[in-house]
Write a structure and sequence with these properties.
The chain is α/β, with parallel strands linked by helices. Helix 7 packs antiparallel against helix 8, helix 10 crosses helix 14 and helix 13 packs across helix 15. The longest helix is centred in the middle third of the chain and has 24 residues.
Length: 402
């Protein structure tokens, strides 16, 4: 097949959820199909990039920018949600128009809702090539959970207001995008239910996130920090910021009451001011960008996932599972992953239970190793990319232009 991928940023290097999913889909599909890529980026990013070998053609445009004042006005007064406006780019739209004129693609794959406006504009002009919408999150529920969390804290009421406005706009926009696509992919059963609830005509297919189990493998190269926890992610992403702050202020102090030398590392790029401020607290490390998260995951005794908002399937959790780490998570954190509480992970949804679960694993290395071994087995059996990507090929064969 000839496939065109629309991605919000170049999917290499794969340092965060979107790029990890995009890169691994392209890597696996390129072995059997011709891939063309349209994305935002700079030519320097393509130097020595495997995308040149994996893709028959790569077209890029510079990422668009919006003034803060413009974004504020649009938040309140534009009918489209913030995510629909974030990557609005006439330059990329022109490149897409040219590619569609020059090629007949078997499938145009839209990676994430930020790229959907680009396709909706083409669809309104009569474009009839097959489109698959890969919805990385049920975006309206992500904002709804953010609203429900932030409204409980007066200091976060401004965030709650933003999310209330956004999730109502997103319900309409996400519905329209799904109805304009020939097939819709959700990354979890929960997301599929949330997307389907927008309109009875929407029938999402669940193809979860995966993990490279050879790359993320158990490692004993690093000195294991017996009393250390780790959390990884893009540290300006609102659910991750909330997770870090909650763990630092409500969970870690409880753990340290029982285990005074317990500590945590928050590992990931672009830490927000709120996350950076946590470095002033005892037992907390904030690394910022690191080229490879595996040494930090390998070195920790427990991988923590204190997420209280969001949707989708967390690639960070799958990476920790593949590396055989003991995991303590909220229900949100492992949503969409078919894991069993008490066997593969420990699940806790309030600060006291979360702290008790972490302390239990820190005190009992044998239990931690057993949980990690079970997690690794689950990752290999159900979430290896090479087992998931053929599901896209099956979907391509069924999808027909509407």
């Amino acid at each position: 097949m000839k496939l065109l991928f629309l991605t919000p940023q170049l999917p290499y290097p794969p340092h965060q959820g979107t790029t990890l999913r995009n890169f691994n889909l392209i890597k696996q599909l390129a072995a059997r199909h011709e891939i063309q890529l349209l994305s935002f980026g700079a030519s320097a990013e393509l130097e020595n990039s495997p995308l040149r070998e994996l893709c028959a053609r790569v077209e890029i445009a510079p990422p668009p920018t919006r003034a803060t004042a413009q974004r504020a006005l649009e938040t309140f007064f534009h009918p489209l949600p913030d995510m629909a406006r974030r990557l609005y780019s006439p330059a990329l739209a022109q490149k897409l128009a040219r590619l569609l004129q020059e090629n007949q693609y078997d499938v145009v794959q839209i990676e994430g809702i930020e790229m959907a406006t680009l396709w909706l504009n083409r669809k309104s002009k009569g474009e009839n090539q097959t489109a698959v919408f890969d919805d990385h999150n049920a975006e309206w529920t992500l904002q709804k959970t953010a609203y429900e969390t932030d409204r409980k804290n007066p200091k976060r009421w401004h965030g709650a207001l933003y999310s209330w406005i956004q999730f109502n706009k997103l319900k309409r926009f996400e519905r329209d995008v799904c109805l304009q696509a020939d097939a819709v992919v959700a990354v979890s059963r929960q997301d599929a239910q949330a997307i389907a609830s927008l309109d009875a005509r929407i029938k999402p297919v669940v193809i979860p996130n995966g993990v490279d189990c050879a790359y993320y493998a158990p490692s004993f190269e690093y000195a294991r920090a017996e009393l250390s926890c780790v959390f990884t992610g893009k540290m300006d992403f609102r659910p991750n910021v909330d997770a870090c702050v909650w763990f630092a202020k409500e969970i870690l102090p409880r753990v340290r009451q029982e285990i005074p030398r317990a500590q945590v590392s928050f590992v990931g790029q672009k830490p927000s001011a709120q996350v950076l401020a946590l470095k002033q607290r005892q037992g907390i490390e904030v690394t910022g960008f690191v080229p490879d998260t595996r040494p930090y995951i390998a070195d920790a005794a427990v991988f923590v996932v204190p997420l209280r908002m969001g949707s989708g399937t967390r690639l960070k959790v799958l990476e920790a599972m593949a590396m055989g780490k003991a995991i303590v998570s909220t229900s949100f954190g492992v949503s969409g992953i078919e894991c069993e509480n008490g066997r593969d992970v420990l699940i806790a949804d309030d600060a006291r239970d979360f702290a008790n679960a972490v302390a239990t694993l820190l005190r009992d290395p044998e239990q931690a190793r057993a949980r990690g071994a079970n997690a690794r087995k689950l990752a290999v059996e159900k979430y290896a990319w090479e087992k998931l990507v053929p599901q896209f090929e099956t979907l391509y064969a069924r999808a027909k232009p509407r």
